[in-house]
Amino acid sequence: MARERDADAPVRGKPAHHPGTEAKGPTRAVVIVPVLTRQPRGDDDTNRPRLTRSADARHDEAVGLARAINLDLIHTAVVTVNDPRPATLLGSGKVAEFAEIVKEGHAEVVIVDHPLTPVQQRNLEKELNAKVLDRTGLILEIFGERARTKEGTLQVELAHLNYQKGRLVRSWTHLERQRGGAGFLGGPGETQIESDRRVLQDKIIKLKHELETVRRTRDLHRAKRKKVPFPVVAIVGYTNAGKSTLFNRLTGAGVLAQDMLFATLDPTLRRVRLPHGTPIILSDTVGFISDLPTHLIAAFRATLEEVVEADLVIHLRDISDPDTAAQAEDVERILADLGVDAGDAKRVIEVWNKIDRLDEGNRNRLLADGADASKAPPVAVSAVTGEGIDALKAIIETRMAGELEDLTVTIEPAQFGLVDWLYRNGDVVSRTDNDNGSATISLKATQSARDEIESRLRAKTKG
């Protein structure tokens, strides 16, 4: 065992909740983080071993997930599992130990930060006399609370139903014959498993039809954007990497940005004008996480299509996190599942966020280690302080509109309406007012701006 917290000890500054307190507070919970001693297998295609997270990092992430739905954590523990038990995952001694902790602490929910089979979940609920959620179930609970739009609600409900379909088992108490509702605090469900499965399947089919309507609507909106056309830039990254903070920094929007896992769920799109006038659509997407359930990715495919269809993808990393490399690997794996090659330097920009949390020595060392001659160097930024944001904007604009070029144009008196546009869409170096009333302007502009300038001048000349 790497470490345990006493049942009555506060967790990260949160006061302990003692039994006997009469006021009804948040749901009391125990968090268990099983660490299997066997190394996880690599990808089927590459057979490359996956990066292993530290026990402390896994523990902190599990605690963060539990707190994202306001659970009162009375005890958390990291447990080494040498021989996973098919019936309960944990050994009988550990199960008995946690059963006593649950009883003494009056815990209602036990979080197991590991996938559980339906049989393991049922047996643990019986032995612990508490409701049990595995990692997938906990993520679904968080998503259920975070969904705000109709689309997000539909996607979460579909994922919930697919998850529940294989778990029509007796619940932990005789008062509830069967698991029901979208969440772990939902009421009792139907009594007949066959009836439940039929009802669930009918709901799944209905939700898929509704989501197909959402997908067609998104396709229409996307088609309209392509007619304008504005290039789309999508921000992706591990949850809590700072995507919403960066989105707010680049757009001036007021998207919710908190130090909380999955603070935002529904995608947000905003139009942004880059320094030299290039317009783009910036998209803030749902955060990724390790071991993201396959059916959850499938349910959110309509949302994630914004990433698939994006002209440019910003892979945002929290470079201050000790597990940043493992987090990046998880994001790249999900992107690969979506058909996006994270190694494509023309389409993906790797951005290292939260450099303000690093001292100068660590910052320089990380940037040197991250330099790879085979791909573009990462862009170091702080979405909070604004450091590096101008450089990031310049890189985005170069990718979208081409390199800056030196350009000299002569504006005739009848074309002076274009002067203001030139100042807004280029860097004017000099201006000379000529005797015949014309003006010669030297500026730096992107390739797309140059084409637009030439087109506007021709139109004015013909007019």
Automatic annotation (TrEMBL):
Main location: cytoplasm
Cofactors demanded by this protein: Mg(2+)
InterPro entries membership: G_HFLX_dom, GTP-bd, GTP-bd_M, GTPase_HflX, GTPase_HflX_N, GTPase_HflX_N_sf, HflX_C, P-loop_NTPase
Cellular component, GO, one term: cytoplasm
Record carries keyword Metal-binding: yes
Hflx-type G domain boundaries: 231-404
Cross-referenced PROSITE patterns: G_HFLX (PS51705)
Gene3D superfamilies for this protein: 6.10.250.2860, GTPase HflX, N-terminal domain, P-loop containing nucleotide triphosphate hydrolases
UniProt subcellular location: Cytoplasm
Keyword Oxidoreductase: no
GO molecular function annotations of the record: GTP binding; GTPase activity; metal ion binding; ribosome binding
Entries under Pfam families matching the protein: GTP-bdg_M, GTP-bdg_N, HflX_C, MMR_HSR1
Binding positions for GTP per the UniProt entry: 237-244, 262-266, 284-287, 353-356
SUBUNIT field: Monomer. Associates with the 50S ribosomal subunit.
Protein task: GTPase that associates with the 50S ribosomal subunit and may have a role during protein synthesis or ribosome biogenesis.
Family that this chain belongs to: Belongs to the TRAFAC class OBG-HflX-like GTPase superfamily. HflX GTPase family.
The name this protein goes by in its record: GTPase HflX
Gene source species: Mesorhizobium sangaii
